[in-house]
Amino acid sequence: MTENNSGDARHLETLDRDLARYSTLEVATQYISRPIVGPGIALVFIVLAGLVSAIMFGQTNNAMIVVVAACFGAYMALNIGANDVANNMGPAVGANALTMGGAIAIAVIFESAGALLAGGDVVSTIAKGIIAPEAIGTAETFIWAMMAALLSAALWVNLATFVGAPVSTTHSVVGGVMGAGIAAAGFGAVTWGTMSAIAASWVISPLLGGIVAAFFLFIIKNRIIYRDDKIAAARVWVPILVGVMAGAFGAYLALKGLKKIIKIDLPVALLIGLGIAVVVWAVMIPVIRKQSEGLENRNKSLKVLFGIPLVVSAALLSFAHGANDVANAVGPLAAIVQVSQSGDFTSAFSIPIWVMVIGAFGISFGLFLFGPKLIRMVGSQITKLNPMRAYCVALSAAITVIIASWLGLPVSSTHIAVGGVFGVGFYREWDAERRLRNARAAMPDRPVYSAEERQRRKLVRRSHVLTILAAWVITVPAAAILSGVIFLGLNTLLG
Fold first, then answer.
1. Which UniProt keywords apply (predicted)?
2. Could you tell me which of 364, 340, 372, 338 has the C-alpha nearest to residue 45?
3. What is the DSSP string of 455-482?
């Protein structure tokens, strides 16, 4: 009996070891296959986009061109989701107001809704006047130029995502169109006035976003955080700040996001925003009063009051982004579809619904599969964010777009959002230095930090700042050079 028990024990021990090996093998297989899953799903989506275009376009002479363009458009949409959308969700995730899964779910819903319900229905001739249509020559040359612009922009955004740099997909497309236009028709084909305005936005977008975000953080710190009774101050100021946010987003969506449904000019949009701001301010007074009951008089309590407004602002930013930036993915594709059908490339291009669906789903898949890397970068790796700071970034994004629209400046949502993060971080550094100087003046015997220690205590990571600024500066020329090379290659192979 003892021998049988001993044999059974040895048998079970051997079985446990074998099962452990299988378990280890399974974990190892999952670890190895994990990097392959995302690209595999993305490839399936790109192939499906090509199949949809083949079905929709039918058996025509240019069907294969449209299929290839649809694959490029799907690839571009995936990259916009991976890179651009992170700027809307990064601050909320970094502030722990949203989990990564919650942020992705909200962004997928609102990006798709913005693209499908309020996405721009017309893409002006050759990407908003960057290239003079008469300079291109033939419809075939135009198609290759748009194909090159689409592929080069997608490749550049993909590379930027890989190195962890949030870049402007708008500027990537602009650079791609410009490079293909120069390769097709020379430097004279470029509308340099438009390009100068876009170049100016490289500086204006992040600077304006940073200043506006820093201004609102200044208000929150001086009117709420540094007050003796923080909760009483919050009951006064949080409804005002939420009202400003609601008004800004109301004007933003009226001006930009709903242009497909109804045309609204800036004064009317501002009036709409003002009305929404007053209503929301009045509604939020009792809400914040009830929400603040029983909260302790400390900074941690204030985070509760900003949590829901921050989540709502992230959702609205995603809706507006989907409404405006989906054209970056599908604009050149829509142009190729129309020219392939009619041969006319001098008039405006309407976007078919199936093309818009490819853009909307591509952005959503790109965010779901590849977005977390850039969300973490924007949300936590540049500077530390809490709900108040992240709220300032979201509010800055909406207000800056309104100001830029009033000034007639083309701006990048990426540059504004990241500039807002920079603004919040650098303001915190300045405020910390100011408070340290005041404390030293009040207490002369206080120990003084060395230059090295003060550098280590910087609240904005300089390495990320330099990487991002470098990527911003070279986006247009890099996309342009890449596009020119692709265009010449296509011309040589297929011309």
1. Membrane, Phosphate transport, Transmembrane, Transmembrane helix, Transport
2. 364
3. HHT-SS-HHHHHHHHHHHHHHHHHHHHH
Residues 436 and 459 sit within 8 Å (Cβ to Cβ): no
Structure tokens belonging to residue 291: 């929400």
Using alpha carbons, select from 31, 33, 27, 37 the residue that is nearest to residue 370: 37
Is residue 149 exposed (0-12), middle (13-18) or buried (19+ Cβ within 10 Å)? buried
Instruction: Specify which residues 131 forms β-bridges with.
Output: 190
Segment 431-466, tens digit of pLDDT: 888 887 777 777 766 565 555 555 555 677 777 788
Whether 19 has a pLDDT exceeding 60, the answer reads no
Question: Helical H runs in 58-123?
Answer: 63-83, 86-94, 100-118
DSSP single-letter state for residue 228: S
Taking phi over 0 as left and psi of -120 to 50 as alpha, with beta for the rest, 128 belongs to left
Task: Show the tokens assigned to 128.
Answer: 């908003």
Token pair 């709903």: residue: 258
DSSP helix/strand/coil, 270: helix
- Grade residue 35 by pLDDT with cuts at 50, 70 and 90: low
Longest CA pairwise span in the chain (Å): 97
Three-state SS at 59: coil
Query: Angle at the Cα of 418 (from 96 to 477), degrees rounded to 5?
Result: 145
